[in-house]
Amino acid sequence: MSRYILAIDQGTTGTTVALVDHRGQIRDAVNHEFPQIYPQPGWVEHRPEDIWNSVLKGIRSLLRRKHCKPGDIAAIGITNQRETALLWDARQDEALYNAIVWQCRRTTPQCEALRSEATQALVKRRSGLVLDPYFSATKWAWLLQHAPRARASLKAGQLRAGTVDSSLVWKLSDGQDHVTDVSNASRTLAMNLRRGAWDTDLLKLFGVPREILPRIVPSSGVMSYTRGVPGLPDGIPIAGMAGDQQSALFGQACFSAGDAKATF
Questions:
Q1: pTM (global) more than 0.90
Q2: How far is CA 264 from CA 11, 12, 80, 133, in A?
């Protein structure tokens, strides 16, 4: 019997879940959208439960079409909106605030306050990025200051922070693994691009504790297993994860230095 990959594409306005066969052909796909939240001009949020529910709805809808049995799924792959920042309590498995979306500009004042010539040079040299609210680190810093119970959760050793990929793995594994892949970590302003690890100086600059962040893993390879996901058996490997733009680059067969993703 054919084995399948369950592909989860978690985007800014919705989630697409697809079934890919052993030939790499998409057998079927479903999409579920969720609300965008705009608390004030320049601010953009998502409810973390809406993101997760859109994934569950996609899985349920796809399996109802009976292209395969749940036991025929060999692995799960994830791609996702990048830079969007989340904060949650591990013990209660509860988000402490809405996800702050990559589009959100609320941390512009924090970035301006840090924007000395020396600081900008440090950020660029270590992360490969410019100091901008677009990226995750200042969003995590904002959440630490404004999310209810964040400080209490941090003191109790239960606080977790991440991007959408790490949040999905956390949920899919029932809290067994807190990981992010290198492509997502590289978009946070907090990863040392040369070492592929969280940078101590950058974390100190933004005020983000290392202990709340996920472990950085390669984009390809088993990084976790399903546990307690409605409709799916336990033990399905989560074996691929990458940010949406990196996934699109790979999907267009750009495997060598100098290759470029086509845009139209």
A1: yes
A2: 20, 20, 21, 27
